[in-house]
Specification:
This protein is an alpha/beta fold and 295 residues long. The protein has helices at residues 2-15, 45-57, 76-81, 102-111, 131-138, 215-222, 256-269, 285-289, and strands at 27-33, 63-68, 84-88, 115-119, 140-141, 152-156, 171-175, 182-183, 189-197, 227-235, 240-244. The protein contains 8 helices and 11 strands.
Amino acid sequence: MKIRSLFAVLFASVSTVVPTFAAPATTHILLLAGQPSHGPGEHEHNAGVLLLKKCLDASGLPLTTTVHLGAEWPSPQELAQADTILFYADGGGGHFMLAADHLAQISKEMHRGAGLVCLHYAVEFPVDKGGPQALDWMGGFFEADWSVNPHWLADFKELPSHPVSRGVKPFATNDEWYFHMRFAGADKGQLTHMLATVPPESTMARKDGPHEGNPTVRAEVAEHKPQTTAWAFERKDGGRGFGFTGGHFHKGWANDDQRKLVLNAILWTAKTEVPANGVASQVTAEDLKLNLDHK
């Protein structure tokens, strides 16, 4: 009986030692699309964020993606939960981040360490509202009468070593690649120029204007100075931002390397490990036809 009792105690002790494995933490990604604008296949904000959501959801990574379309604003709870917030929308004075008290709400999330991603026109802010915040949170922005927005074939021959560039090969696309951004100084954080190349002289064919040209950018193009069209930024407080000036044409998301760069950046700004070969995704011709705005 004593031996049986001893075995019973040992068995009970062993059977209660059950290994536990913590499930990977879920990263919350908030994707915000602006209202429709431009012609068919251009500035397809709604279809664009839905396509990015599809790719993220199919990645197999522990992600929760939430989308709001047509400039619909998320709830305070959704904002507070987001590890990164992406804007794909028209910018400038009509940027929907600047409506009502939205800028103050985003400021609250940035101060707790949330990431920020802005695509295409959404990188443009007025210098007196949104611009200073974009410098702090994203490391740069499109400034009228300083930056320009020509359509041109950009050939990105090399990329820096960075989590955002994992698995991304050099590529070339014709897009409305903005350049000559206003960038933050080193006192605000670490800026990495992710996509940069020398624009052709044809980008300066227009007269000077708030988006078309100015003496400073004309001199830089004449000197064949490389211009940055996408950048990653790590703030002093540890928060992260990413600006991407392409994305005028919806068909551009069919480019595997352009898409991977942005998907990687979404993870990186959310402080989530980017896979060694980047975020794998597939987009078909049928995928590109989905959710287009009626224009």
